[in-house]
Amino acid sequence: MNLQTTLNLVLLLILFLAMVVFLIIKMVYTKNFQQLVTPRINSRNIVVSNHDLDMMIEYYKNRFELDDYEITRPDKFLNFGRNLNKHKKQIAISKRYFDSVGYEIDYFISRLWFSSRQLKKDNQVKVYSLVANFLIGFTIWCYVAIIVLQIILFIIIVAKGGSDIQNPFLKFIWKVPVFDIIAFCLIALLLAFFLFLNEMKIVIQDKYTKDVLMDFKENFLNYYDDLKAAMTYDSEIHLSYNFAFKNRNDIEGIKWLGPFVKY
Q: Residue 32: which residues within 8 A CB-CB, separation 6 or more?
């Protein structure tokens, strides 16, 4: 094995190892997530009645200028940013069960609030949703695709003798690790996305709380302590992206981490 072949093999192993480390992190996080117990909110309100919840939804639909939109309740779980359907004039809020009233109220109002900010073209909300719901997943798939491509190219070139490459393109990417450089850039980009989301979540959480909490106190005082406790819990979750392996069709198994954590 010549020096160039050894170098390409080492780079490929490093990239593969990085992917293995990411999978290990996901497995560890999945185990911790399965053991997570969302704290119950001590409240005199055991449940929120359908009548009261409908009143809150109608009030905030009006306040957030969503009167033209129909609320639907699909069984499939939808992350924040994916609830709004402008063409159908619908806001889809997945069916979920909550142990505490505050979380349920927080869930409904936050989905309405986020949808309204999307309609108003709030740049922070738009970018947060784009990064969380698309760019991170796209970056991961690009990274995996590059590793697979690198393995295929390595096998082809080594099978041809490595040093005796006639194709100018193959010769170039064998001597200049273009794909490896792209892969390392994707790792750096992925880390930057996670850091960005963590910082942006704080900003969006604060904006949502300021926009809703005191207004909620004035209009639904009986449930104010419940929502305040739920928002306090939201702010204590410092992670913006849930790394756990999960089945989004198993809504009961998706534990509440606040309204702005990507599942």
A: 244
